[in-house]
Amino acid sequence: MSEVKLVARTLDLFECYANQGEALSLTELSQALAAPMSSTLALVRTLVARGYLYQTRKRTYYPTKKLMGICGAIDAQDPVLDILRPYLARLRDESGETAVLGTREELQVIYLDCAHSLQAIRYTAQAGEARGLHSNSLGKALLSALDGEELEEILAKLDMKALTRHTLTSRKALLKDLALSRERGWSANVSESVPDLAAIAAPFSMAGKWYALSVVGPIGRMQAAWDRHVAVLAKVIQALARDQAIDNI
What we know:
This protein is of the alpha+beta class and 249 residues long. The chain folds into 2 domains: 5-70, Arc Repressor Mutant, subunit A (Orthogonal Bundle), CATH 1.10.10.10; 78-248, 2-Layer Sandwich (Beta-Lactamase). The chain is 49% helix and 21% strand. The chain is built from 10 helices and 9 strands. Strands 3, 4, 5, 6, 7, 8 and 9 form a 7-stranded antiparallel beta sheet that branches. The protein has a two-stranded antiparallel sheet with strand order 1-2. A hairpin with a 2-residue loop joins strand 7 (197-206) and strand 8 (209-218). It holds the Pfam family HTH_IclR. GO terms for molecular function: DNA binding; DNA-binding transcription factor activity. This is IclR family transcriptional regulator. Keywords: DNA-binding, Transcription, Transcription regulation. Residues 66-249 form the IclR-ED domain.
């Protein structure tokens, strides 16, 4: 999918600030964005004029809270998350591990929200992160919910690159895994995306769109309580079906 360069550069700028955590000069921003100084200056001037950046006394720039306020207002009114967050939190609390909500966009899983485990060693992720469909428990759960024709169309485009030595990289292996996922009602990722992580996920449909919930944690801890995590995930999905107008389980 092609990107709009100016939009991508603007998003890169804010992600740069999130990573750097400090005010940056025009030169530093130009280098971080790999953009000409003239283009960076035009972008910064526009964001300053719109109230998204301000200039410090050291002639560096830093974001104002305007973007945070806008994002907060959007997040507070999200019709999907408003319904699903209590179930995400319940999944986290009852499993003791991080719970993630995701959906498919094109050939990726997009994380919509995460409820992080309260344990000191835990899996962490942020809303908006993207993952490969073939190597992620949410991705495989979402693929398992598709019918033959739609699934064939996606698999024909999917780049099944290896992330670890356990990643499924062949169409035959993935189809076998998806068939097992449909049979038992949940998908698994054991060291397929990150060597020391494991996850289980289950799909559900709401308002005509497929979503999935997952439990993710350190592989040793996950495997020690695997059956309990499967039961907790099933219970939360059943509660969602009972309480909300979801289409399918």
